[in-house]
Amino acid sequence: MLSGSPFKGKFYMVTGGGSGLGLEISRKLASYGANIYILGRDREKLAGAKKLIEESGTECNFFPVDIREFEQVRKIVDDIFSSSGMDGLVNNAAGNFISRTEDLSMNAFLSVINIVMNGSINITLETGKRWIESKRKGVVLSILTTYAETGSAYVIPSAAAKGGLSTFTRSIAVEWGPKGIRANGIAPGPFKTEGAWKNLIPDQSFEDYLIKKNPSRRLGTTEEISELAAYLLSDFSSFINGEVIRIDGGEYLRGAGEFNDLSMLPEDVWDRMKERRKKQ
Ligand code: HXC
Fold first, then answer.
1. For the chain (length 280 residues), average pLDDT per consecutive 10?
2. Which of 68, 111, 213, 266 is least enclosed, having the fewest CB within 10 Å?
3. What is the number of other CB atoms lying within 10 angstroms of the CB of residue 215?
């Protein structure tokens, strides 16, 4: 979608870049000329991802780390700023599971919140401090979800954490904007990645339901979301700051409009209403 190599000679870090959406975003940025750093828990996955990302001809380095290990992450960011530095950060790593909330322990809440919100805030803080110290421009992109705004039953640790990260993103955009740092979010609806589907989609009938209720009558593709990510990280979007862009085929609005469900009215009822109106 973007013209030229807008990321040529630049360095971007993607958390959770070893698989799923993080890997697709990394590959897209690399195809536009970026060098990539990926973080993830699984060394083997990261090594496989590095090969795929480097197919575009740029460099990819990986760091096996759980982003809940705040001190280790700080050290990694330190090392990167001692060498290449960084031009952008993608907060993509996430953890989530479906559960009735009364079945959860506080530890279950913390296991998700420490990845999604605290892990992302820690790495943004460490990166931002170094950008400010070195007077280098930077851009942060956080992968949120449509339910960061509304909340959602059965994924409450994730909803609370994504909501917090969303507010953090909008706030830091204002505070750090004058220092040359932008921060935006993407709020995806249903995208079929292995991690999300394995953890969150109980069976085929729920996937069918997600498609049926979506005004676009399909799931999103990782191509669509990674192009949006590339745009928001590039200078083509340099006046977009503090925004959360929804990409969900219209699913969010479909759930909100009072009369949206009238789409299920049979034809003859519409015809009768029309006749009645004419008579009136
Ligand atoms: C209830 C659970 C649970 C489950 C873990 N716990 N899984 N409780 N239901 N399914 C509880 C445990 O009992 C434990 O509490 C605590 O959580 C920590 O458990 P661990 O197994 O030690 O967890 P940990 O190794 O920290 O990993 C947890 C996790 C894991 C990170 C959340 O599930 C994971 O790795 N998920 C894969 C990543 C992922 O989910 N990606 C998809 C994100 S997609 P106790 O009290 O027993 O000690 C996404 C987008 C949403 O978020 C939009 C989709 C449409």
1. 92 98 98 98 98 98 98 98 97 97 98 98 98 97 98 98 98 98 98 90 94 97 97 98 98 96 94 96
2. 266
3. 13
The enclosing H or E element of 266 equals none
Residue 148 beta carbon below 6 angstroms from any ligand 1 atom: no
Secondary structure (3-state) at 37: strand
What span, in angstroms and rounded, lies between the C-alpha atoms of 86 and 36? 9
CATH number of the 11-279 domain: 3.40.50.720
Provide the CA 176 distance to its chain's centre, in angstroms.
Answer: 21
Rounding to the nearest 10 degrees, give the CA dihedral for residues 260, 252, 21, 73.
-170
- Nearest Cα to Cα of residue 173 among 147, 140, 130: 140
CB 130 within 8 A of CB 87: no
Contact call for residues 219 and 253 (beta carbons, < 8 A): no
CA of 277 from ligand 1 middle (Å) equals 54
Mutate-to-test residue for ligand 1 from 96, 101, 144, highest number of ligand atoms within 8 A of CB: 96
Cα distance between residue 33 and residue 38, in whole Å: 16
Domain spans of the chain, in order of start: 11-279
Answer whether 249's CB lies under 8 Å from 220's CB. yes
State the Cα–Cα distance between residues 37 and 71, nearest whole angstrom: 18
- Output the CA 95–ligand 1 centroid distance in Å: 6
